[in-house]
Every structure is written in structure tokens, then in C-alpha cells.
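Quick one - inputs below.
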Amino acid sequence: MSVVQANMHPLDNYLRTERLPHVWCSGCGIGTVLGAYLRAMKNIGMDPEKTIMVSGIGCTGRAAGYVKMDSFHTTHGRPIPFAVGIKAARPDLNVTVFSGDGDLFAIGGNHIIHAARRNADITVITINNFIYGMTGGQLAPTTPETGITTTSPYGNVESPFNLAGLVAVSGASYVARWTSLHVRRLEKSIEKALKKRGFSFVEVLSPCPTAYGRRNRMRDPVDMLKYFQEHAVVKHHINPLEGVIEPDKDFIVGEFLDAEEEPTFEDKLWEMTKKEFLYTSQAERTAWILEHRRHLETLSKIISGRGER
Amino acid sequence: MKVEVLEGHHFLSGDVAVAEGAIAAGCRFFAGYPITPSSEVAERMSRRLPEVGGIFIQMEDELASMAALLGASWGGKKSMTATSGPGFSLMMENYGLGMMTETPCVIVNVQRAGPSTGLPTLVGQGDVMQARWGSHGPYETIALSPESPQECFDMAVRAFNFSEKYRIPVVVLMDESVGHLFERVSIPPKSEIEVIDRKISTDKKRHIYEPDDDLIPPMPPVGEGFGIHVTGLTHDERGYPVITAEAQEKLVRRLVDKIRVHADEIIDYEEFMTEDADVIVIAYGISARSARRAVIMAREKGIKAGMLRLKVIWPFPSKKLRELVEKASHFVVAEINNGQILVEVERAIRKEAVFVGKMGGEPHRPDEVLKGIEEAVK
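Output:
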């Protein structure tokens, strides 16, 4: 059977086109971000056959089901430890976690800080839509204060997480935040994140008109993009603590952290299996560990804006 | 001295023996979280795995450990974790994902007394039903129960072989007494240990979950262009989610049947003095050692007693019990819980058995089991 290729989308080779249409609502930003991710992959020539996508549960978690590469749709909150396991077993493969804010920062919150601390060589893309979309619009750890959700009908009284800030101070090697409106800069950041050896993280603020916007005076999909346009301030290498997002106020997007590459978790795990490491004295092993340790004091200067770049 | 697989005679605890058995079976990935009384398994693995080219990771919790195990298994490594009741509870989430995605791996549960934190350092056997039904939904499980450090070694090998052959997470259901028991362990030369590896798919056109005649699909490797999709959602043979009752019936029926049709190959038990027995004690793990002594004491008193020791707890040997009930009149169950295998035994023999239970904290004394035997024949 011959197939006419004229109508192919430039990303069709990266998508399981037989699974389309996807589950995402109109006005949702996930497709925009997935597009940016796949273009970034294509731009840097990353081989989809050597790339694994792992996702958790939720709207964003469905992304793994649409990409034409080895992909795993795991349990709620656990894509990161699953990815840590697969990357440790196969350090030669590129491993990306693509999941939502609830999945990675509420139920899976413990795992992301530990994967960042270990400098596991994985890339994590988090879509932050301020809400639990798949289950119908419940309170997320990112819902802004006062936000109306189906489980905060009187307004959210909790403070939301500053995702990029949290990951930056946990020991990541690369951290950025954009919105689904900043498509080109997002794409560039994802390229950097994919190329970075070590733990890289990109947070993307993204509209959910169906479950969030509808209840929070941004009913039309364009309303939230307008909100992003009006309030996003591009700033790089800020103190991550300045990355808080407050209702109706300006918030910062940009590159939070771009640290120098240091040995990854997997580098160290595999070094331990070598004879040169095992068949030596503890003094020499200690020396090797110190020589290859991460320079978190430098990291701390960078993230507090005092370090040289 | 660095050795790949231990050989010869060693004086080992059950926890150490199960670790060595895993290495002999080809285990090259361990992810775990410290918990009494299983921590010695992790400690041994952290020392030994790098020596054999394997990876050890102490994860942030048991949820993560179990997830990492599945990831590493898809990455091609034979993977294991070790835990105890509270950690086993947390692992139930991805135990289910392992069932649904048919991911080989081994979970060692060195049981302590519960519920909750219970008696961290003291024996229990209360996780038998959790191993069977702990994760939600219908599935079949494989669980082995060693009674000695020797069997911890042997059963670790068998657990890996079952998990690789049937593509299923397998539980080694130890208990604290066996885990901390030191005994002689004789390990045959490496060449004499039978090691089974998973079937690997070589055909990129073949659907990921298209089973062979044995109902088990070969496992594709990652990073080789197979473009697999693996999901915990109900899926078709392509691995794609299908949210219908028909897809659920087809998939889960096969997951259940792939173990049921092979149950006779998996089931294993020891019969001790059962040929002419009038009363039969059913026991496993450390309780079987007390029961064996009790059977001898009963015989000395002129009671024709015997023991059926479950080496494999799940699948449960119902057929064997129905056979025994034809010959023996009385049944006694000795276990360190409130009656878990008791329910299975009574279901199989279709009558009541005398229950010699303990809530945990210490193994049975032989005379406690003997009292049960005497009560049964009274």
C-alpha cells in the first residue's frame, strides 16, 4: 500500500498518529507544550529510538501515549522513580518525564526533590495548569490563593508551590519556567534541558479553560493566554525564591538555573561497578567521591544571584 | 575477595541467603528502603551488586523503590527489592502496575508482626493475604515461603525464574525468624543452578502484548526502535488504552489465566509423614519448623500426625488438600496471624480445621501445635 505523504505534519514521525485525536480539550495548552518538546528533540537531532518518555496520571500524563518512542504511562506520582530506575539500568538512553503539577508535586512531591538532589540524568517537563483537570477540577498544590476549584468552592486558602524555585534549590542542574505562550523560548529551553547532563527541569504554565479558567474568570481559552501575556516578566537567573506566583500579580518566567555539568547519579552508580573503584583502598574511594562531588556551594551562590556565571 | 556467585558451604542468615540467591539468579538491580527486619538484605546487596556489575539504589521510600524496580526491569535488569509489612503496604500500588504491565521483578517481604508498625523486630506471618490481594483488582500472584536460610537462597532463584518465565512480580514471603536465622547454606556450582531468562521479542512488527500459546507475551527491549507503549490502563495487544468492559475481560482474563494454567508447575509443598496420617498440620515458614516437631511428638504419643508444608503459598494447592481430605480426618493450621491460610484450607477441605494462631511476636512452641493436634483428634 502506498501512502501519500503530502499531508504529513512535520512532527508526524514523532507521533503515534493512529492514536489521534487526543483526549485534551480545546483550549488546553498540553498539545502546545508537547509540540515544543518534539520540535526541540528534532532540532537537536535526538534519536526517538533512543529516547524514553515516562509519564504519570492526569491529563498531561496521557502525553506518553501519543509519542512515537518507547513510552511508559505509570502510576500517579511515580513517573520520576520509574524513570530513575530505567535510566540507572540503561544510562545510554535519553529519559524524559512528562507529567502534570499534581502528579509530580503533590502525590509525587517526594520523588522530584530526591531525583534533583541525586542529579539523576533525566529531563522533567511539568505542565502547571493550576488544577486537577482529569478528575474534574479539584484543588492542586499550584492553585493560586483564592482560586475556585470543585474542592475549594469558597476560594483556596493554601499557598501554592513555587515549582521551579523548589527544584532549583533541591539540586537540579538546569531549571526554567515558561508559559505555553512563550513557545519559541520554551522550545529553546527544552533543547538545553535535553542536552544537559544531570537533572533538568522545565515548568510550563498552561491554560486549562475547562477545569480552571471556567471557574476563575478566564472562561475563554484566550483569557488565560492574555493573563500570561500581561503578567509574565522574563528574567533569568533570579533568586528562585522570587519565583512565587500570586493571584493577579506579575510573575517571573525565564531560565532559573543553568549550572555547570557535573558527574551524574548514573555516572557514579556505574563507576562503583568498576574494578578500579572496587579494588582499591577506602582512602582512594573517598578521594574519588570528593573529586566527583557536586559543588552545591557554587550552586547556592548561583541561585542566590551572587555567583559568577 | 570479590566473587560473582557464592559457591560451597556458608553460615548465613536468611536475609543474606536470599540476597545471594538473587545474585545467583542474575539479579543486577536493587532498589529499596531500610526497614526492620529486612534491612540486611539491602545491606548485602549494596555491598555485593557493584562487585557483580549491578546497581544498588536506596530510594526515598517504598513507593519509589517499587517504581524504580519496574523501570529497571523494562531496562533489561533482573530487579529486586526487600521490605517488611509497612513497606509492603506502600509497594502495593506498583505491585499492581507490575501485574498489569507484566513486569518481572521480585519482592522479598520479611514479615514482622502488624498491623501498622506493630512489632518491628519480632516475627509475624500476617501478610499472606496481602501478597495475594493487596493491590486492587483481580489478578493472580506467586508467593514462596522459605523455612530456612537454605531455602531463602533456593527460593530466591526460583522466584526470579517464575517472574521471568511468567512476567509477573513474585513475592518471597519470608518471616523475621527465618530472616534472622543463621544456618548452613550449601550452594552448588554456578553451572548447576538453573536460571531462566525472560522471552525477548525480536519482531518489531509484533504487538507488545500479543501472547504466545502459553499466554505470555515475549518482552520487547527498550531503546531498540520497538516504539512500545506500556500503560497501567486496560490496554489492547498494541499496549494502547482501551476503556471498555470487553478489553478488560480479555486482558485481565489472560493475566489471571497465564498463572492458573501453569499452577501445577508453580505449586510446591513438602509432605511430612502424611502417608498414613489421620491428622494433618498445614504450616509454612518458621511455623512449619515447630509443626514438624509437633508431628514427631504426636507420633510418639501414638497419634498418626503429618504435615503439609507450603513451600509455594500462592497459587494455593487446593487440589492436594482435596486429595488429603480423602485420607485424613482432621486438619490443623498453624500460622502467626489471625487465620489467613486457614480460610484457604477450610475452603479446600470444605470443613473446619483446628486453628493454632498467634498474633505475632514469637514463633509457635511445638507443644502449642501439639495441643492443636490433640484437640483435632479428641
